[in-house]
Design brief:
Distance between the termini: 50 Å
Structural class: mainly alpha
Radius of gyration: 17 Å
Shape: globular
Number of helices: 10
Largest sheet: none
Length: 213
């Protein structure tokens, strides 16, 4: 699609806002409420994400959270790609969805770390890119059982995979920004990993959470 510079800016800004609102749907909280579980921000790591929901002991809730968090990153980007929009617009939309997850306007800006949503965005950018990053995450997670360590290594690998496989572009900036924010959001996990206090995948919260309703 041939666009003027002004059209690109307007589409990028408008698309990013819409994607941000979609990304602001915190499915960890929404799904937990539907399953009668406690707010995931109130136990475990306090992170509203699939890994922490899994600590409730409800695998179905955790899987649904994972799927919907990924879809809210993937769908807006995939639609933009199918429309043939400029790579700048597509990148802005991906970042909008990701930032919405981190700082959701509908949930007092108390968001998650963005791993699943970032994966969805990368899959939207290019299936191969998202697939390779996900394989990196999966390999580390299976070997170490640490979701946070897997996310950190996948975040470091993502920009390199993008550049080597798809070259330098505006999209590279988007991938670097997401990776940097992911690593920053894992600051507490990094400290726990170093101290040997990080929880492993599937490890339940110290006190099984129940709904306050």
């Amino acid at each position: 699609m041939n666009l003027s510079s002004l059209d690109t800016v307007v589409l990028a800004a408008g698309g990013a806002v819409i994607a941000y609102l979609i990304g602001s749907l915190s499915f960890a909280v929404i799904v937990s409420r539907l399953f009668g579980l406690a707010d995931p921000r109130s136990y475990g790591s306090g992170n509203p994400g699939a890994t922490n929901v899994l600590r409730s002991g409800n695998k179905a809730a955790a899987i649904l959270t994972l799927v919907f968090d990924a879809l809210k990153g993937y769908i807006p980007v995939a639609i933009a790609v199918q429309m043939g929009l400029d790579v700048t617009v597509v990148t802005a939309i991906g970042l909008g969805a990701f930032l919405g997850h981190l700082w959701p306007v509908f949930f007092k800006f108390e968001g998650g770390k963005g791993v699943a949503t970032a994966a969805g965005v990368l899959l939207g950018f290019a299936g191969g890119l998202g697939g390779l990053v996900l394989l990196t995450w999966l390999a580390v997670a299976l070997i170490t059982r640490y979701s946070s360590l897997a996310a950190l290594i996948a975040s470091l690998a993502a920009p390199a995979i993008q550049v080597l496989g798809w070259g330098l572009s505006v999209q590279t900036i988007g991938v670097v920004v997401m990776s940097a924010l992911l690593i920053w959001r894992h600051e507490a996990n990094i400290r726990k990993l170093i101290a040997g206090q990080e929880s492993k995948i599937g490890q339940k919260a110290s006190a099984p959470p129940v709904s306050k309703a």
